[in-house]
Amino acid sequence: MAPHNRKRTRRTPDADDEAFDTPDAPAFAPEPAMPRPPSVPLLIAAIGNPSTAYKNTLHSAGHTVLRNVRTHLAAPPFRAHLGGEISAPGPERRLTLLGVREVPLDAASDDGWAFWISGTFMNVSGPAVKRVWDRWRREGGQHGVRSKYGCLVVVHDELEKPVGEVTVREGGSSAKGHNGIKSIQAALGSNTPWVRIGVGIGRPASREADVVSKHVLRKMTPAEERRIEAATPEVLQLLRDIADGVR
């Protein structure tokens, strides 16, 4: 006799039935990671006083730090450029069907930065900074960088901060008596956004003009030089933040 066909039913698990325990499913699928936007090319200009007579003076702390940044990144050596010195990557050489061609870098990393050391006196550095900025944006490909949408960053000494302390501000904010910054603000006008990074050099106890002048124009002591050079990693990180749009 054929077995009796019975309809089988599926048992519903009880809340305490461990045999049916399953991990909770995620409430929603994770969103795919957004691609990182390309970094902004930077022209980083350090202002100070020219010639070896003013090398390693407090007023030229920006020069000292920028040279250290270039060395840290193993960027190309400085060479003469528009009355100052520039370090910029050369164009990449690629083999194409038409032969070897020079292709500008995309500035997707620190290789897209150019460093410029001013060759004019601090208090009148504005016109020189504007000239190199305009040239860099207009002819960036000449230096191997697509710089149409680049950003200008000025590195300078900061009298109002302790030696080696680093600050970052919008370029158009108060110059606080810094004549070099005032000169750049006047040259660039209010329609050019830029960023400035200050490196503290300390202020003397007296605020007399001649005392302050002697302070900023004297050579750094070995201890001051070490503290100013020690600011290099922080300045480098700020530059990367600016390039990435974090600052």
Topology:
Blueprint (H helix, E strand, L loop, with lengths): L41 E5 L14 H12 L6 E3 L2 E4 L4 E5 L2 E5 L9 E5 L8 H13 L12 E8 L7 E5 L8 H10 L6 E6 L8 H9 L4 H8 L2 H12 L4
Helix pairs in contact: 1-6, 2-3
Q: Over the alpha carbons, how many angstroms does the gyration radius reach?
A: 28 Å
User: Quick one: CATH superfamily?
Assistant: Peptidyl-tRNA hydrolase
Let me know the largest β-sheet: 7 strands, mixed
Q: What's the shape?
A: globular
List SSEs in N-to-C order: EHEEEEEHEEHEHHH
Pfam families: Pept_tRNA_hydro (PF01195)
Biased composition (Low complexity): 22-31
Enzyme class: hydrolase
Organism: Trichodelitschia bisporula
Give a description of the structure.
The protein is built from six helices and nine strands, in the order βαβββββαββαβααα. The protein has a seven-stranded mixed β-sheet, with helices on both faces. Strands 4-5 form a two-stranded antiparallel sheet. It is globular. The protein has 247 residues and is an alpha/beta fold. Helix 2 (126-138) crosses helix 3. A hairpin with a 2-residue loop joins strand 2 and strand 3 (84-87). It has a single domain, classed as Rossmann fold (3-Layer(aba) Sandwich), CATH 3.40.50.1470. The chain has helices spanning 61-72, 126-138, 179-188, 209-217, 222-229, 232-243; strands spanning 42-46, 79-81, 84-87, 92-96, 99-103, 113-117, 151-158, 166-170, 195-200. This is peptidyl-tRNA hydrolase.
Provide a short characterization of the protein structure.
The protein has about 250 residues and is α/β, with parallel strands linked by helices. Helix content is about 25%, strand content about 20%. The protein has a single domain (about 40-245), classed as 3-Layer(aba) Sandwich (Rossmann fold).
